[in-house]
Amino acid sequence: MKKVLFLLLSLMMVAGFVFANGGGDTSGSTAVMADPAEEAALAYFADFPDGGYIIKEDVFIDKVKAGEDMFIIDIRQPDVYNEGHVTGAVNMPWGSDLGSQMNLIPQTGNVYVYCYTGQTAGQTVAVMNVMGIPAKSVRYGFVRGISTVEGYEAVVDTDNVMIAQESHDIDPALQAAADDYFGSLPGSDPFKNNIIASADAAAILAAGDDSVQFVDARKTEDYAKGHIDTAMSMPYAAGMQASFANLPADKKLIVNCYSGQTAGQTVGILRLLGYDAVSLKHGMGTGKTGDTGWANEGFELVK
Question: What CATH number is associated with residue 131?
Answer without folding.
Answer: 3.40.250.10
